[in-house]
Amino acid sequence: MLNQAYKRGLILGAASFKSNYGLDKKYSLKKRELIKVFNFCLKEKIVYIDTSNDYRLTNFFNYNKSIKKFKIILKINFNFLEKKTLRQLKNEIFLLVHNFLSKNKIKKLHCVMLHSENTMISKNKIKIYEVLKSLKKAKLTNKIGISSYDLKKTINIIKKFDFDILQFPYNLFDQRINNKSVLKILRKKNIELHIRSIFLQGIFFIKFEKLPYFFYKWKNHFNYLKKFLVKKNVNILNLCLSHAFNLGYHNKKIIIGIKSFKHLNEIVNSKIIRDVVFPKTKASKERNLIIPYLWKIKRR
User: Fold this and answer.
1) Model pTM?
2) What's the fold here for domain 4-294?
3) Number of H helices and number of E strands within the chain?
């Protein structure tokens, strides 16, 4: 079972509440089960929720009055604000944040996060950064952050701008962030790292034979993982969680995506294994494998 330190390092990812998240659309959290999830999280001291204005999940949060006891990380997509003046940007983003807080009866966000690193290489990057700082100054959020898939772009951005949090993928196949020079930069800038996609949208839990044909070109990576699990006598859930928590960066939290209360309970009752290390493989260089929006498949 996870100890309190590990539990406090977990973030509940709201993207997985939706039925169109991951490969399998059969499962989505219903009202009664979601209330059970929220109550269980509070009991277990899991107090962070990661969500987005794109997810349209306000009704999910309204199911439970205790939502105000959570620390909310809100990702915002700025693409619709591309050709705006600073005043227009500020007015629209402040309105978006105020509406989110009001609808969910929350006084303050834990973090407002850019949904993509591309926002900070656009023409509006300086204006957008100023708006984020204004939100913090207005005490509407404690922190500001950026979510990314592109490591090279992200490093250039965090060298120029002061973000409190970086959200980046890290899993058995995608180990790009596990780089000494990159982690050194994050430490120097005192950036908190939020690791996402630790289950790679659930594909690690699906038997290879049942995966879409798109993944067959990487059969060797899946076979290597299967043999590793047998050799080390560990299950895939424990390995995924251990891999994330064992990353050599102290100031981090782990985002977990769940499809059911049972799945959440299994995570909380998992064991972190310190002496089993899944090695870096060439899978980290396979962009079409490790970045879900590049998957050319028909979702079920």
Assistant:
1) 0.94
2) TIM Barrel (3.20.20)
3) 11, 8
